[in-house]
Amino acid sequence: MASNKRTPMIAGNWKMHLTSKEAADLAAAMKKGLDPDLKHEVLLAPTFTALHAVNAVLAGSKIFLSSQDVAWEEKGAFTGAVAPSQIKDAGCTHAIIGHSERRKIFLETDEVINKKMKAAIKANIVPVLCIGETLEERESQKTYRVLETQLVGAFAGISAAEAAKVVIAYEPVWAIGTGKTATPDQAQDAHTFVRKQMERIYGKGYADAVRILYGGSVKAENIDELMAQPDIDGALVGGESLKADKFLRVIHFQAALSR
Fold first, then answer.
1. Residue 122 has what pLDDT?
2. What is the C-alpha R_g of the chain?
């Protein structure tokens, strides 16, 4: 079981789905179905166009709002980009940074991700940093090397104090949207490695406190077993977070009963 010092987080990444009304309706269902005594954190990440609508629905709830990305510049001639101040204006407290789809499809480099991390931290937005290896990298036994490179790149020039609020999400690329999930042992192994890397960068105190989420075909059927692992502090959920009943089951994972 994860350390009681670390508050679990369940985050839903809605990706490029849902109109503003559909997103607001889903957020309302989340708000209504949430256990009022829930002790861990819940985070919703709708597309940019739905942020204002979802924020209005979440008013008065304990659910946090996140963007799916953020620009590294505050203003200027950056067509299509959305600045840290703009997502804050829409109600966001968090921003997903470095998701594998941003890395793979939009060709974001570790340098770009590092700049986004610094911009978010400067704006007092909590970065949810995504890292993870492809199937080819795992089969070539490069998982650890990839994770180390991504972590070192993302945190370059960021002090321990600045990094204190960062949430890390380990997402094996081969398990995202494929229906394949890393076994609890595979996930725990990767999380242990990530925590050791963070200890190497910032020391044991930081490593013990940083939250590391698992992402990659997380479902109502496997969340309990995943959350029972000592270094898994939550989940970043994709497709399952678009179904109110399923995502509520993920949020109320049974492992919470013994925390």
1. 97
2. 17
Exactly one of 171, 191, 240, 252 is catalytic; name it. Answer: 171
Q: Model confidence over 19-75: pLDDT tens digits?
A: 999 999 999 999 999 999 999 999 999 999 999 999 999 999 999 999 999 999 999
Question: Quick check: 254 and 1 in contact, CB under 8 A?
Answer: no
99 is catalytic: yes
**Which runs of E-coded beta strand occur in 110-224?**
126-131, 167-170, 211-215
Query: Has 22 been annotated as catalytic?
Result: no
pLDDT band at 257 (very low <50, low <70, confident <90, very high): very low
Contact (Cβ atoms closer than 8 angstroms) between residue 20 and residue 71: no
The CATH fold assigned to 9-258 is TIM Barrel (3.20.20)
Record the tokens describing residue 106, joined without a space: 């939009």
DSSP one-letter code for 134? -
Phi and psi based region of residue 169 (left: phi greater than 0; alpha: psi -120 to 50; beta: remaining): beta
Cα separation, 214 vs 155, in Å, equals 19
Name the pTM for this structure.
0.94
- Which of 99, 133, 191, 252 is catalytic? The answer is 99
Parse the chain into domains and list their residue ranges: 9-258
- Residue 2: the pLDDT is 54
**Residue 96 token pair:** 């997903």
Burial 116-155 (b: 16+ CB within 10 A, else e): bbbbbbebebbbbbbbbbbeebbeeeebbebbbebbebbb
- Token pair recorded at residue 6: 């670390």
